[in-house]
């Protein structure tokens, strides 16, 4: 590290530029990761919130909860350690006193029973007591300025609901969730399908005490049990989106390795006559190689951590509408991955160092 | 004591189908405290001679001894180690590392052998060479003469047996060149080194105990003037 650090201190501009590039790449990678994670979260947050193991959907729904419906009494056909009925309906709402296009919000209604385990924790306001009362995701207040007591009217229907409480982390398909009771849910979903006598639900969320849902049984041919993770990866667009971001991030990490590797390689080539002299003096290749690797480590360490700092700072300043979210496990693993691949890139140059002939220093 | 000795050392190169004898069989030795010069035109085999002594290449035949230890039969890695311990190089273009101060050039030696920098030794050595006030300067801040003095300090610091100087005055004017060679001669005596200087400038040989001429791979000792 002696040589590595002395050289960085001596050629400040040159190394500042290299570190600058590393910072920018690291920043981009971290930021994309934050966005990818945030977006993925907004798809699945309300599902993770259930802390469930499995979900029962109608057999013909092809794991699409929007296409799944069956009578509520079929919950008795399911055996599981805990179960909760869930009705899902997407809808468009608008503050009751407004009528312009701008104020319309895409939401998903979750019809639930107060006594069942998927009932959300209310962080502000109260739980719903009667029909047409809803608990909403807090983002409705943060992004749309809606407060407790506000009335929302449903687009295309003569129906308004009242916000009585807020909960956190309740997003589904990148939109806020409104929780309501089953009777209200029946009214909302009936809008598209006409009156039905029986109560219809979309899914039964289950918890299981054994692995792989072994203790969950359905006594109905129309219903199927899926694990929660299978359900999440089949959310419309979810897997495609996670893969897209994953590929981008993976390539960026590789590109970062190549760029740092090339920089270090060019620097090593530039220094080759000096390195030849050092080798003539009897300084071993391994000492010089260690110094090259050490220098790369220093450069990537400084660059990556500065990039990380900038990302965290940006995260604080972003408006709530940007789906950016930090996940410290991801950040930590990308930090170490970036540093590891950068150092791996420097191994290109080790060969050059080994091949430098000290004879050339004399001739 | 012979600090360096060459016994029947010969070096040949293969150039296509021709075999070139760069160094004809040579016997040569330098005692401690002895300062010898090797002069000769370029292409005469001077460099080959110097690099064989320095262990940068091995002789085709014969052996090189340092402090009476066989040197030329060690493998590459051990030779590098021996070179580091026993040979101080002074090269024509200064062999200083551009991003290290004069003091750090010496400190690097300590770093490699994982020992502590001896402040007194550095101070004494640099003031001996008249550059102790330049301790914290980078090579780019030094004049040619000062650079070569710093290179001498670097070569001497590790207390090697042999100092090899390859055209150490090439980039200097006459006055500076004499000054550097004088210092080299003085330090050789005082520190009991065996110093071999390769040069093309015959005027500088006044300070030397013996002068050899290299011509077409043959090394001959000159008669003292």
Automatic annotation (TrEMBL), chain A:
Keywords: Cell membrane, Membrane, Transmembrane, Transmembrane helix, Transport
Domain ABC3 transporter permease C-terminal, residue spans: 247-357
A GO CC annotation given for this chain: plasma membrane
InterPro entries listed in its UniProt record: ABC-4/HrtB_transporter, ABC3_permease_C
Organism domain of life: Bacteria
Segments passing through the bilayer: 15-39, 242-267, 287-308, 328-350
Main location: membrane
Keyword Transport belongs to the record: yes
Membrane topology, record value: Multi-pass membrane protein
Location relative to the cell: Cell membrane
Assembly with partners or alone: The complex is composed of two ATP-binding proteins (HrtA), two transmembrane proteins (HrtB) and a solute-binding protein.
Biological role: Part of the ABC transporter complex hrt involved in hemin import. Responsible for the translocation of the substrate across the membrane.
Family, as annotated: Belongs to the ABC-4 integral membrane protein family. HrtB subfamily.
Protein name: Putative hemin transport system permease protein HrtB
Lineage: Bacteria, Bacillati, Bacillota, Bacilli, Lactobacillales
Automatic annotation (TrEMBL), chain B:
Signal peptide (from-to): none
Function: Part of the ABC transporter complex hrt involved in hemin import. Responsible for energy coupling to the transport system.
GO terms of molecular function: ATP binding; ATP hydrolysis activity; transmembrane transporter activity
InterPro entries for this protein: AAA+_ATPase, ABC_transporter-like_ATP-bd, ABC_transporter-like_CS, ABC_transpr_LolD-like, MacB-like_ATP-bd, P-loop_NTPase
Subunit structure of this chain's protein: The complex is composed of two ATP-binding proteins (HrtA), two transmembrane proteins (HrtB) and a solute-binding protein.
Keywords assigned by UniProt, alphabetized: Amino-acid transport, ATP-binding, Cell membrane, Membrane, Nucleotide-binding, Transport
Cellular component aspect of the GO annotation: membrane protein complex; plasma membrane
Any single biological process term in GO: amino acid transport
Gene from which this protein is expressed: yxeB
Protein name: Putative hemin import ATP-binding protein HrtA
All copies of domain ABC transporter, residue ranges: 4-225
Family listed: Belongs to the ABC transporter superfamily. HrtA family.
Broad class of the protein's primary localization: membrane
This protein's record includes keyword Nucleotide-binding: yes
CDD domains: ABC_MJ0796_LolCDE_FtsE
Record's keyword annotation contains Membrane: yes
Pfam annotation, one family: ABC_tran
Annotated compartments: Cell membrane
SUPFAM superfamilies for the chain: P-loop containing nucleoside triphosphate hydrolases
Membrane topology: Peripheral membrane protein
